[in-house]
Amino acid sequence: MNQSQSLDELLRLGKSSDVSAIVQLGEKYRDGVDVPQDLYVAWDWFLKADLLGVDEARDELEAISDAFRTQIEQGKIDIEELKKRAEDGNPLAECCLGHVYFIGKLVPQDEKEAARWYCRAALKGNVDAMDAYAQCLIKGKGVDVDLPGAAFWHKEAAKRGDAVAKSLLCFVLSQGTGIPKDAKLANDIDAIPASLPAKEIQTKMEEAIAKRSYTFPLSQAEGIFDLYQNAENGDEEAMCYLGKAFRNGVGVPVDLPLSASYFRRAANQNNLEAIFALGQCYEKGLGLDVDYDRAYVAYYRAASRGLPKAKTALGNCYMTGEGGTLDYKEAAKWLKQAADEGDPRGQTLYGIMLEAGLDMPVDEKSAFHYFALAAQQGYPRAQNKLALYHKNGKVVPKDEQQAFLWMERSAKQGYAKGQYNFGLLHYEGVGTPKDIEKTAHWMKLAAEGGYPPAQAFYGWCLEEGQGVPLDLDKAREWYEKGAEQRNPDCLKNLGYFYLQGKGVEVDYVKAASYFKKAADELDPVATFELGVMYEQGQGVAKSEKKAFQYYLEAAKLGDSDAQFNVGCCYEDGEGVEQNLEKAAQWYEKAANQGDADAQYSIGECYEEGKGVEKDFTFALYWYKLAANQGNKDAKKKLKKLGIK
Question: Which of 184, 433, 506, 592 has its CA 20 to 30 A from that of 561?
Answer without folding.
Answer: 506
